[in-house]
């Protein structure tokens, strides 16, 4: 089966409606605070939903079922650490963010260490997000290409253009409220696939349990202390906590959503509940992977170019017209939670206003903000186009990039919270050592990416503390 005009109409209608809905928020953008933080007006439940949608990309939608289809449910060990990490972020990071009138998370680093460390953290964020979200956009284009036959480059450009248009004009409010809508769209799509598989499998859920149990698909916990395995209990607990502290506690992409809440309490409520919902939805996606495994034991499996294609192949080969189009729209929904507004916020507040034009008026700031949003959108388009030659799992690629550079920034935040003895120079040195250690580990060792954030933050913190012992006191005071 291939998609027909009804499916294409559903997909096109969804993308157009999403773009129109996002640009609707342009009328509320009266200042840069509105543009980047929605005037602190987002209720806690919307904070929860936007965080869930932000964490759930096409990488999740097709990559997690593929992980269970080819392996088991070991991935579920990772979100266990996510939940614990959120509690720590709510208790440690959020009160500090809401004590000041912050526009970006990296302003906190300047208060503690000075502008150089702030700029380093912000630059790492911009580099990391460009790569990770470029992969995210490519993944969506890959799915669309599989089910429609439209070449990946054209799909990247079409989806990227829609993302840029509604984000550039609608600002953070557009991103957050489209996230809320899209969470329900992609969860509806996942449930449709779940029940379609349940109906298609001879023997129903009993057959899924039997086939999955026999093949070890329901295995979750691996208590081995093997640093080369991506998903173990210890990697999930320790690595998952560290990654969450980095992404939800220091990364502007998610911190910006938290800062859009009226208070630290509202942000914390939404953040912690989002961890529970993410855990449940990962369980759903993994169950779909086991169901796909069972189904393709009963019928001939399609020829795959890569494991990530298994879910979209099922959609186009088995689901009726209209429904298949809705599922593709749901996959698009999981992808279009853009980071380019957060990247623009960092560009404007951490670089433009800090080094270029400290006295810029609101009109100038808004003009620069629009241009920065457009610019970073184009960068992500270029990255996505380059991902066509990537030969590894999109799930592991996207998450490993986030983990690789998250550690040094997290280390700086943790040192800043823990002690006032470390100078700016020592902190920059520590971040350099942490990043160098991670690059070595990434290129020369088989250590799994789930450990990167923990190792990077630990090495950064220890190196900064050690360097602070030999840094002259006057230099430390001048840069602190």
UniProtKB/TrEMBL annotation:
The chain crosses the membrane at residues 6-26, 46-68, 80-98, 134-152, 158-177, 184-211, 231-250, 271-294, 314-336, 373-391, 397-417, 424-443, 449-470. One of its GO terms (cellular component) is plasma membrane. PROSITE patterns: NA_SOLUT_SYMP_3. The keyword Transmembrane applies. Its main location: membrane. Pfam families: SSF (PF00474). It is a multi-pass membrane protein. The keyword tRNA processing does not apply. Keywords: Cell membrane, Ion transport, Membrane, Sodium, Sodium transport, Transmembrane, Transmembrane helix, Transport. Signal peptide: none annotated. InterPro entries: Na/Glc_symporter_sf, Na/solute_symporter, Sodium:Solute_Symporter_SSF. One of its GO terms (molecular function) is symporter activity. GO terms for biological process: sodium ion transport. It is found in: Cell membrane. Belongs to the sodium:solute symporter (SSF) (TC 2.A.21) family. This is Na(+)/glucose symporter. The lineage of its organism: Bacteria, Pseudomonadati, Acidobacteriota, Vicinamibacteria, Vicinamibacterales. The gene is sglT_5.
């Amino acid at each position: 089966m291939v998609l027909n005009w009804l499916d294409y109409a559903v997909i096109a209608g969804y993308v157009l409606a999403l773009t129109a809905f996002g640009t609707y928020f342009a009328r509320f953008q009266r200042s840069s605070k509105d543009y980047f933080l929605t005037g602190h007006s987002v209720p806690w439940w919307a904070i929860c939903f936007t965080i869930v949608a932000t964490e759930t990309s096409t990488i999740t939608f097709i990559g997690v079922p593929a992980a269970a289809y080819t392996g088991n449910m070991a991935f579920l060990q990772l979100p266990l650490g996510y939940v614990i990490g959120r509690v720590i972020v709510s208790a440690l990071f959020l009160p500090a963010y809401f004590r000041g009138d912050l526009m970006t998370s990296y302003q906190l680093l300047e208060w503690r260490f000075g502008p150089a460390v702030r700029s380093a953290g912000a630059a790492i964020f911009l580099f990391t997000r460009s790569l990770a979200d470029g992969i995210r956009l490519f993944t969506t284009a890959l799915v669309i290409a599989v089910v429609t036959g439209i070449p990946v480059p054209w799909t990247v450009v079409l989806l990227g253009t829609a993302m840029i248009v509604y984000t550039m004009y609608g600002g953070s409010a557009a991103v957050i409220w489209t996230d809320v809508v899209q969470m329900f769209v992609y969860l509806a799509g996942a449930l449709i696939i779940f029940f379609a598989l349940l109906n298609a499998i001879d023997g129903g859920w009993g057959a899924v349990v039997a086939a999955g149990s026999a093949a070890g698909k329901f295995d979750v916990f691996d208590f081995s202390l093997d640093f080369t395995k991506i998903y173990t209990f210890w990697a999930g607990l320790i690595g998952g906590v560290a990654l969450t502290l980095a992404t939800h506690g220091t990364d502007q992409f998610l911190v910006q959503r938290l800062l859009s809440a009226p208070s630290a309490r509202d942000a914390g409520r939404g953040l912690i509940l989002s961890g529970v919902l993410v855990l449940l939805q990962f369980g759903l996606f993994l169950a779909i992977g086991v169901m796909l495994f069972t189904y393709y034991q009963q019928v001939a499996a399609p020829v795959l170019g890569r494991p990530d294609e298994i879910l979209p192949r099922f959609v186009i080969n088995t689901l009726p017209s209209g429904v298949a189009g809705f599922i593709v729209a749901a996959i698009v929904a999981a992808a279009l939670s853009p980071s380019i507004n957060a990247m623009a916020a960092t560009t404007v507040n951490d670089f433009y206003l800090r080094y270029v034009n400290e006295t810029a008026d609101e009109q100038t700031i808004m003009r620069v903000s629009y241009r920065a949003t457009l610019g970073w959108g184009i960068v992500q388009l270029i990255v996505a186009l380059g991902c066509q030659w990537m030969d590894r799992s999109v799930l592991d690629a996207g998450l490993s990039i986030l983990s690789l550079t998250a550690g040094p920034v997290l280390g700086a935040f943790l040192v800043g919270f823990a002690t006032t003895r470390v100078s700016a120079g020592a902190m920059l040195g520590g971040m350099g050592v942490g990043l160098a250690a991670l690059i070595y580990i990434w290129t020369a060792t088989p250590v799994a990416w789930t450990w990167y954030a923990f190792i990077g933050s630990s090495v950064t913190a220890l190196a900064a503390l050690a360097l602070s012992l030999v840094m002259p006191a006057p230099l430390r005071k001048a840069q602190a």
